[in-house]
Amino acid sequence: MIVNNIHTKFLVVLGACFFFFSSMLLAQQDTEQDIDLNVVIQGNAELFLNDANKVSKVPKVIESSVELTPMVYSLIPRKPTQKIDLKPVPAAKVTIDKPLPKLFRAYAKGAVGTKFTGLGELRFMDGYNRNGTFDSHIKYFTSDGFVSQADSIADSFSDLSIGLTGKRFLKKHSMGIAVDYDREKIHYYGYDPDIFPENFDADDGNKRIYNTFSVGANMRSYQRDTTKMNYRGTFDFKQFSDNVQGVENNFIVGSKSK
Questions:
Q1: Three-state SS across the chain?
Q2: How many other CB atoms sit within 10 Å of the CB of residue 155?
Q3: Which of 108, 187, 98 is closest to 142 using CA atoms?
Q4: What is the value of pTM for the model shown?
Q5: d(CA 201, CA 246)
Q6: Contact (CB, 8 A) for 147 and 182
Q7: Cβ pair 178, 163 in contact under 8 A
């Protein structure tokens, strides 16, 4: 049975090869001749559609999770190899300054000389005070002069000075005030009244009195914060006058900030 099948298959293959080679030879002999071949198949055509193979399994989502092994850090204790050499610290020398000397809150002095020359001064002030300070003084100096022995020429002079100053410290500000008065009396001599009549007066002669009065105030701030501004303001007034109707007034107002 198996031999007959093999023999049949061999004959079919041999016939197909003979037909193929013979058609090629005919084609090579006459290349211009067309080959018409009609194939007639007799029978009923049966059209059929194969059944579709459906997948009966429903897809599912499988979540994959990876377990992480916890990491553990361990420190291997190791003793330091460096040797610590302790050196003793010498004792500190503390120098204690002497306390501030005691301040005298007031003093007075005076002097007397020839030609009726005299000097007197009195000053009064406060001691140590963190809230503020003040100072007041008066000083007077006078002399009859010594140009002529018989005092025939009026050359006496005198100086008077009175002053008061004070300062007050606040939390972040300070205020100060000062009041001063100076009086200077002199006599001009050595001028000929006929040549310089304007320097002499019928009543006072050659005497001149110069008065200077001044008052001043100031205020400033002390801000430690660098984002804030520090300022300083001042006010000064000075008046100058004499005994021949001379008067001069000055005002000064100033400010500064940084």
A1: CHHHHHHHHHHHHHHHHHHHHHHHHHHHHCCCCCCCCCCCCCCCCCCCCCCCCCCCCCCCCCCCCCCCCCCCCCCCCCCCCCCCCCCCCCCCCCCCCCCCCCCCCEEEEEEEECCCEEEEEEEEECCCCCCEEEEEEEEEEEECCCCCCCCCCCCCEEEEEEEEEEEEECCCEEEEEEEEEEEEEEECCCCCCCCCHHHCECCCECEEEEEEEEEEEEEEECCCCCCCCCEEEEEEEEEEEECCCCEEEEEEEEEEEC
A2: 19
A3: 187
A4: 0.55
A5: 14
A6: no
A7: yes
Strand partners, 133: 167
Residues 225, 200: contact at Cβ < 8 Å?
A: no
Q: Judge contact between 139 and 121, C-beta under 8 A.
A: yes
List the one residue out of 134, 158, 212 whose CA is nearest residue 180: 212
Each residue's pLDDT tens digit, 194-246 = 776 666 665 566 788 899 999 999 999 988 888 888 889 999 999 999 887 88
Per the structure block, which two tokens stand in for 204? 């006072």
The contacts of residue 246 (CB under 8 Å, 6+ apart) are 240
Rounded-to-integer distance, Cα 211 and Cα 192, Å: 26
Asked if residue 64 has pLDDT above 60, the reply is yes
**Which residues are registered as beta bridge partners of 17?**
none
Question: Is the pLDDT at 62 greater than 70, yes or no?
Answer: yes
Identify the CA nearest to 224 among candidates 172, 169, 163. 172
